[in-house]
Amino acid sequence: MALTKVEKRIRIKRRVRGKISGSSVLPRLSVYKSNKEIYAQLIDDNSGKTLASASSREKSVEANGTKTEVSAAVGKAIAAKAIAAGIENIVFDRNGFVYHGRIKALADGAREGGLNF
């Protein structure tokens, strides 16, 4: 029986998460996208805490333009919050999504904002 799109993404997500994890020194930047919005969190997996978060739903994020442009703005916003928290190096978790389009735009925006990964 064929897997649905969501089931395939969850399998890929499990495979990726088996290889990477975040810590307080090197947190994990987890990305989730829905059809309308995009969300990003910096997570310390050792303590199970979210260190910083940004999304396209926040008023502080400039939400004009295409979804790809909004994703880049969310990437810059999470980078600014991370730098303010004293975090410069991260591990990127694409969360099972293919690394192109909005996910790539968010990653490029975070790099422009000063994050290293």
Automatic annotation (TrEMBL):
Record's GO cellular component terms: ribosome
Protein name (Swiss-Prot/TrEMBL): Large ribosomal subunit protein uL18
Quaternary structure (record): Part of the 50S ribosomal subunit; part of the 5S rRNA/L5/L18/L25 subcomplex. Contacts the 5S and 23S rRNAs.
SUPFAM superfamilies xref list: Translational machinery components (SSF53137)
Signal peptide segment: none
Organism for this UniProt entry: Chryseobacterium salviniae
Family stated for the protein in its record: Belongs to the universal ribosomal protein uL18 family.
Keywords of the record: Ribonucleoprotein, Ribosomal protein, RNA-binding, rRNA-binding
InterPro entries cross-referenced by the UniProt entry: Ribosomal_L18, Ribosomal_uL18_bac-type, Ribosomal_uL18_bac/plant/anim
Domain of life: Bacteria
Role of this protein: This is one of the proteins that bind and probably mediate the attachment of the 5S RNA into the large ribosomal subunit, where it forms part of the central protuberance.
Transport as UniProt keyword: no
Keyword check for Ribosomal protein: yes
